Structures are given as structure tokens and as C-alpha cells.
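Input/output pair, single chain:
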Amino acid sequence: MPAAIEIINLTKTYRSLFGLRQVTAVDNLNLHVDEGEVFGFLGPNGAGKTTTIKILLGILYPSSGECKLFGEQFTSSSAFAPETADSRLKASIGYLPEGPYFHEFLTGREVLAFYGRLYGLGGQNLKKRISETLEIVGMEYAADRLVQHYSKGMRQRVGLAQALLSDPKLLILDEPTVGLDPIARREIRDLLLKLKGLGKTLFICSHELSEVEMVCERIGIVNHGKLIKYGKLVDLAFKDRAVEIHVASLSDETRKKLEALNCITGKHETGLTSIRLPARQAVYDVLDVLKASSTDVVEVLSQKESLEDLFIRTVKEEVA
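Output:
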């Protein structure tokens, strides 16, 4: 089965003002997104995320390299012409831009009717798709209200409904929870998981790292157009992280044995004695020492990084 997204040696360069120098927005980028997964595409401002998304959507063309969607590649500038291979490929993509704008004097249902006609839908088929997408995003109750009376969370839901109208296999979502209050963020997060359950592939670009951490299985972090971290979130967050063991107390002899294993011992804020291990693989050696000395082990904690910590550390290391 081909990947939903496959990016191969992708590079995009621009000429700066007056053409004095060349600017590289995307630099030899390689990644793939499996069908049915939720992928987080992360990076600081100016990292090349938006350029990459525009290339995936066929809005921009790469300077070199290629992007494939479900094993196919855009072939020509005629992508917007009806009944071309490229137009059919684009119909498999749903896109939610950051801060979607809709005409204030239209209702939610009329907004979807407008975009549905752009997709080439009409008649009873369009009415059916509008009803289905409104139900998926939970906006049936407000479908006939004017957009000007919608909250930001409601506008995001209509934006998602618009992205779902053509029943796409792939959803590209740019900042789907930006600026929302905690309740609206939770609602959108639950909706994204619902879409995954429907078999959709989600490619999420966001600075809301705590939200990404809750829904994404794999991530890619880019900076200055280059991919600097890539893989399963659980592997990246736990890889080579320290472990801390809390015990009631330590004898001087046991403490010396632990220090020989490069452990750091000290008092924890709870009043317990903490033993900090340099790496996860040393856990069993330390536990053997504690067991031999009949030391009372209270708890063993893995010092997992948050996605925010991982992101900041990765970007800083790349800059250094």
C-alpha cells in the first residue's frame, strides 16, 4: 500500500529581493505519512512548513525532488482543469487553512453549499454531503445561523466540514486549534480523533504542541527547511531519558555502590532519597544493588520529555 504522503528529496528555492541571493525554503526534505495515521508536522516560524504544504496542495512547484500522494504525483499545471488526473488527485485532499475566513452574511449551510459547488457537487448529492459533514463536526444545530454569529470554535468546525465535503482520504490541517479556548480545543481534538476513526489520514501543522502530543502518533520537526527530528513520538520522548528511583533511605555502603554505577543520589522534596540514573538500561543493575541491601523502593519514575521540551531541545541543538 503506498504512503498517503511521500516526500522525496524535496527542495524549494526563491530569489530574494532584486535577485541578489538565493533563499532555500525547503532543503532536501524526506518523509512519509502512512494511510490512516495522524502525523504532526512541526517547526518554528519560517521553518518551511507552509511552503511544504503549498507544494503538497499543488499551489507551488518544487525546485527539485517530488511529492507523491497515495503513490501519485502532480504532473502538470492543468491541475485545476476538470477531469484531469491531477484534479482527481486533488479531490482526495481536504485542506483547512489557519484562521479560515467565511462570508459573514452566509449561514454555515450556505458556506458549505458554496464550497461544494466549487468541488463540482450539486443537487441532492450536495445536500446529502452537507448534512453528513455537519453531523460529523457536530454543527447541525447551528447550520442555519449566520456565520457572523459563530464563535471561533464554530468557525473551525465549519472549516473542517468544508474540508470534508469531497470525502477526502487525506486532511491537511494548518493550526486547527489556534486561538481556541480550552473547551473548544478539547472539542476539536475529539473531532480529529473521530476523523481518524473514520479512516482519514491527518497531516497536522501546529504550534499547539500539547494538542499535537495528544493526537499524533508520529512527528517530523523541521527548521530552516531541513528535517531535524522524525519518528514515533513515544520513541523520541523516551529515548535515552533518565530514570529516577525513590527510596526510603540509603546506607553509606549502598550509596557508594550506586555512585560507582554513575548514579546521582540526593534528597527529594517529599523527604525520600532520590537516585537518578544516567540511562534507562541501568535500571536493573541499580535495582539489583537495592535488593541486595534490602533497601525499601518506594517508586520508579521514567523522566519522559513533553513534546514541548523535545521540540525546544531539538531546535536549540540544531542551531548550536
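The longest strand covers residues 22-33. Residues 76-83 have pLDDT under 50 and may be disordered.
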